[in-house]
Amino acid sequence: MRYISTRxxxxxxxxxxxxxGGLMSDGGLAIPESYPQLxxxxxxxxxxxxxxxxxxxxxxxxxxxxxxAELRRIIDATYTAAVFRSDDITPVRQLQPGxxxxxxxxxxxxxxxxxxxxxxxxxxxxxxxxxxxxxNILGATSGDTGSAAEYAMRGRRGVRVFMLSPHRRMSAFQxxxxxxxxxxxxxxxxxxxxxxxxxxxxxAVSNDLAFKTRHHIGTVNSINWARxxxxxxxxxxxxxxxxxxxxxxxxxxxxxxxxxxxxxGHIARSMGLPIRNLILATNENNVLDEFFRSGVYRVRPSxxxxxxxxxxxxxxxxxxxxRFVYDLTGRNAAxxxxxxxxxxxxxxxxxxxxxxxxxxxxxxxxxxxxxHADRLETIRRVYRDSGQxxxxxxxxxxxxxxxxxxxxxxxxxxxxxxxxxxxxTIREALGRDPEIPKGLENLEHLPQRYTxxxxxVAAVKDFIxxxx
Length: 468
Ligand SMILES: *Cc1c(COP(=O)(O)O)cnc(C)c1O
Hints:
The chain has 468 residues and is an alpha/beta fold. It has 20 helices and 15 strands.
């Protein structure tokens, strides 16, 4: 499998090359030269596979420069009942007839990012050992991504994590999740400031190329290709769980921020999985809903990003969207380059009155947006009708998914977090606390390990130098 850039001007690479990298050298994103096409026989054989077996079949298509036995070892060590609280890894449950929840949030940080990030941790460790390299991951978080990265990298050889978060501004649960980690390779840095200060520091350190090289600084951001491909697996798993034959079609409702999760759905569909619709749900930050309705992609300045009760979808632009646009333009890298240069210059591009817009319908995307009031209403209705609690992001997906439900087509709503992470909104909706998963009841009382620093680039650099 060769990987090329969506902007067409970077040398082709292997999986192992794109694994540890960020953007391609021309500023584009890594994408396979073509998607493997599944035969009916293959799809029939995959129906009965376990999560681990299915993950191996899919990963070996995309990571063909890792030996099969090695890949199997990594997958078997990652997708265990001990880590994901069930041997199904991503269990499906029914919400109402024809509507199902695909449980993606049973990993250590109770959000779907664990599914990909846990595998990434194991892949990183293996790649760094092979290349005799070290990596210091530097990141900024206001919650989900940072904790998923820390739980994926804790205790791994060759990797340290330096995670910046705004001091005293995360929820008690999220703070406890991260700060209770005692692993010596995890460094929580609480910055006296807001999330933007943390992000600015990460940018400033990353822009100091000499420092970056000397200290082997890297990131685990949402454009990482290995994260996308790891997420392809559960679309297959979810499809098989709610169908009896591969003649049937299924629609998936996906709470969307940076377009990573739903991009994996698009790839599963492109490989031949019989997906009818990919139902894209946004919150008040509706840049992608607007695109799929109108053909205009208009990113928001950061002062126009709403802070919502589904905070992991609060985005100004969708970092993985370029991968889809590449396919939408018929894999025309020159066009993609032009379109995203236009975004940098003017903040938008407009595909109406282009052949690309006419083709959009072939890709099976529909979309909608959800508000705080919708979220509360959905959480209440689901609880009343099924006795199940869903988190705020999942509620956005259910709300928009039901708007697009079609008779005879099973609807699978992706559960991207557990309600325990967002107890404030659950209390607002239901007047009671969410259930805390077994083993985590005491989390907020565990000893915490973190360092408080001023919002000062030099202070953070000194800290990294002193600890790496
Ligand atoms: C990250 C996240 C999302 C958005 O996923 P993308 O891949 O960025 O579209 C949705 N819900 C939760 C809970 C998340 O953590």
